[in-house]
Design goal:
Number of helices: 28
Strand order of the largest sheet: 4-7-12-13-14-26-25
Oligomer: single chain
Number of strands: 27
Structural class: alpha/beta
Shape: globular
Helix content: 25-40%
Length: about 750
């Protein structure tokens, strides 16, 4: 046996790959990569190049294989070969891990926080025990149920850069006991703090003044927040738990939170990266959450209250300039207060914007008209069919009662059904690019399965997560650029027509999709390749096979790297202007201007520059090409159903776009696909109606060609020649998902 060692990719191998393989950068690819995933290298005083990023990411993953604790020479040889194959796959942009992995894998932060490799999480909002977790309040027993626990979990994961889906369905909220008492909260700060004046403006109190008024008063709990993520979470936990007698052992009604030691606005955050927001957003959050709870003294919290608390936490996390808060609130389908909570515009603009809201349904649900009405007014709610997720993998494999029986919700983008405390674990293959680069698709998808399996052996901070991951070993192998690939391989889209049939339960006439048989066969074969790769690797690792394996993530920033259509979505248009917003000081701007890209000041945000990128979709000139602006709502539903039936045993993330004249089809189509689609959301198609459209504006082929003629240089070459790079700048509005729901870091 060999001693524990680290698998590395040597420079000779990497240099040879760089000669043989050219990364398939999309028209936005290199620019997106450089400002989003290239980490700063202190020893070289510059940011990473693509080969360095891929090396870091693959080495970070391959060394998670638990057999490396006591490896044989054969295991080292096999894993080194696998690392080399993965490097070639990702370097060529035939596939990529999730954006989280591109940013975190292989860093010291990953070693300290295994959670950081997972994009998103799910938690049920009900009293739970902290158990053997890295955060555990000292006033509680480890096995004691606490109302604060799921809120602490949410706060912690959001601050580590993950998104969180949370369930506030009635069966969870009804487990929260009556709020026993109001809490008199004081947030105090020392005069010497650099954040003193702005914190007072937000409602904090001068520490010395507070002491003068409480010299003889000892009837309070005092907590001085350490300058750590854990300190923020523990302070909020104490605030929540003091409202309930069972978790208020001192039986006190006054709480003092001292924020004097929290680093000021703009200070560097080590490990995760970026700069601090200062304590000011925290002051607001503490006061607002306390008010929510005080308002319910002697009563019970509602689903709206619990969502408000999560939203206030999310708002605080967003206040930092690196992290983004991604939340999905899942409520009961008959809770009208929850469904209508965003109609309160004051609270919407204050904090309720922080989550996308969906309702939990089953296949017997019929009342889709109010849901359709809500979608027409504000794009919500989405729907999540928990019954399907618990009892089905792929729909074609039939009813399997209890196959995933502990599922309670989903991640914010809806592609992975999850049990309490469980994360999504993603990797996506671009089959359109992989075929171009000569890959056997079965091999590419098998490598993806093994990559995600290793992620399940990270060190996870929360006991509830470790338990779920060790049991389920859930993975999410996705494919992206699906429309490009199927149109290229089949010569047409996968939905080749519709036939008239009757709904077997209602007798209503519906249009049933007809799918290309070749499309069914190839997708099924790739699914089987993933399952078989997981079966073999699970045997090698002596662990449970994954409870589910495949998905379709929405993609977004990652899809831009390779220039493919995002997830299962159709391109927004055959030709379009993609607008990207940069900080006005970004060193990429001179290079973009020099190469002929159109730039102008952002009309929405100060100190921000908008750059226009002319984009042509793959297969844009094919007679069978369809875009989000031309494909029918019926075909989009049918395409999602195709992937849920033959590819994804988890779920399929899809945001269906619809035209004004299609709005009456929303409720009937949701009902028609109640036995097939596990989760979905809908938004109207805006086209180019918005001035300086924040993301995409359809254009004609002639305008595209005219704009392309104006671009005369290579941005990467110009940038490298003229800049030593500047640390810490990034694109303003990028996300790992097409909908913008999930954070990139």
């Amino acid at each position: 046996m060999l001693d524990k060692r680290v698998i590395t990719l040597d420079s000779d191998f990497i240099n040879q790959v760089k000669k043989e393989i050219r990364p398939h950068w999309g028209e936005l690819g290199w620019v997106t990569y450089k400002r989003t995933y290239a980490r700063w290298l202190d020893d070289k005083n510059r940011s990473e190049n693509w080969d360095e990023t891929v090396k870091r990411v693959i080495e970070g993953n391959i060394n998670l294989d638990p057999r490396l604790k006591h490896p044989t020479s054969q295991i080292v040889k096999e894993l080194t070969n696998e690392a080399q194959q993965l490097f070639k796959l990702v370097y060529g942009l035939s596939a990529t891990p999730s954006g989280r992995n591109l940013w975190i894998s292989g860093t010291d932060y990953q070693k300290r926080n295994g959670d950081s490799l997972n994009n998103c999480w799910f938690i049920a909002i009900r009293p739970q025990k902290y158990g053997d977790s890295h955060i555990s309040p000292d006033y509680l027993k480890k096995d004691q149920l606490a109302v604060s626990m799921p809120f602490s979990f949410t706060f912690d994961q959001l601050m580590k850069g993950g998104g969180v889906g949370f369930s506030v369905v009635d069966s969870n909220i009804n487990q929260i006991p009556t709020v026993d008492q109001e809490v008199d909260l004081s947030v105090v700060i020392d005069k010497n703090s650099k954040s003193y004046s702005p914190s007072l403006e937000k409602g904090a109190i001068d520490l010395d003044e507070w002491k003068k008024g409480h010299e003889k008063d000892q009837d309070y709990v005092y907590y001085k927040l350490p300058d750590t993520r854990e300190g923020w979470v523990l302070a909020n936990a104490r605030l929540i738990d003091m409202h309930f007698n069972a978790t208020n052992p001192e039986n006190k009604k006054k709480l003092v939170l001292d924020i004097s030691n929290i680093r000021p606005y703009g200070a560097k955050i080590h490990g995760f990266g970026g700069t601090a927001s200062g304590p000011m957003p925290l002051v607001e959050m503490f006061l607002d959450i306390n008010q929510v709870l005080n308002n319910r003294a002697g009563k019970n919290l509602t689903a709206v209250d619990a969502t408000d608390i999560c939203n206030l936490i999310g708002k605080t996390v967003v206040a930092g300039n690196v992290r983004r808060s991604a939340e999905l609130a899942l409520g009961s389908s008959d809770n009208q207060d929850f469904i209508k909570m965003k109609q309160d515009k004051e609270k919407l603009y204050h904090h309720r914007w922080a989550s996308n809201n969906s309702v939990a349904i089953n296949s017997k649900f019929k009342d889709y008209d109010p849901i359709a009405d809500g979608i027409l007014h504000n794009g919500e709610p989405g729907v999540v069919n928990l019954e399907l997720s618990r009892n089905y993998g792929r729909i074609v494999d039939g009813y399997q009662p209890g196959i995933d029986n502990e599922v309670e919700g989903t991640n914010p983008c809806g592609e992975i059904s999850l049990s309490n405390g469980e994360p999504c674990n993603l990797f996506e293959v671009f089959p359109f690019i992989a075929e171009k680069q000569g890959w056997d698709l079965k091999e590419a998808f098998a490598l993806a399965a093994r990559y995600t399996k290793r992620v399940t052996f990270s060190h996870y901070d929360w006991e509830v997560s470790r338990n779920a991951i060790n049991k389920n070993r859930r993975i999410g192998v996705s494919m992206s650029g699906i429309q490009d690939w199927l149109l290229n391989d089949l010569g047409h889209r996968v939905v080749i027509g519709f036939k008239d049939v009757e709904d077997p339960a209602t007798g209503e006439k519906i249009k049933k999709a007809i799918y290309d048989p070749k499309g069914i066969k190839v997708v099924d074969q790739l699914y089987q390749a993933v399952v078989e790769a997981d079966r073999k690797y699970s045997q090698e690792l002596h662990c449970n096979p994954s409870i589910k394996h495949t998905t379709v993530k929405p993609s977004g920033t990652v899809a831009k790297l390779a220039g493919v259509s995002e997830g299962m979505h159709f391109h927004y248009s055959g030709y379009l202007i993609q607008r990207i917003r940069f900080q006005e000081s970004d060193p990429l701007l001179p290079a973009l201007r020099a190469c002929g890209y159109h730039t102008e000041p952002d009309i929405y945000t100060d100190h921000t520059i908008v750059v226009d990128f002319p984009i042509k979709a793959a297969n844009a000139d094919s007679k069978n090409f369809a875009s989000a602006g031309t494909v029918s709502i019926a075909e989009q539903f049918a395409t999602q159903a195709f992937l849920q039936t033959y590819w994804s045993d988890n779920a399929v993330s899809c945001t269906v776009t619809f035209q004004d004249d299609e709005s009456k089809q929303i409720a009937p189509l949701l009902h028609q696909y109640r036995h097939i689609i596990k989760s979905t959301s809908l938004l109207p198609y805006y086209g180019g109606s918005l001035k300086q459209a924040p993301k995409q504006q359809p254009i004609s082929k002639d305008i595209y060609l005219e704009r392309k003629k104006q671009i005369t240089g290579d941005v990467e070459a110009f940038f490298e020649a003229e800049n030593d790079d500047i640390k810490g700048l990034e694109l303003v509005d990028q996300s790992d998902c097409a909908s913008g729901a999930c954070p990139i870091k």
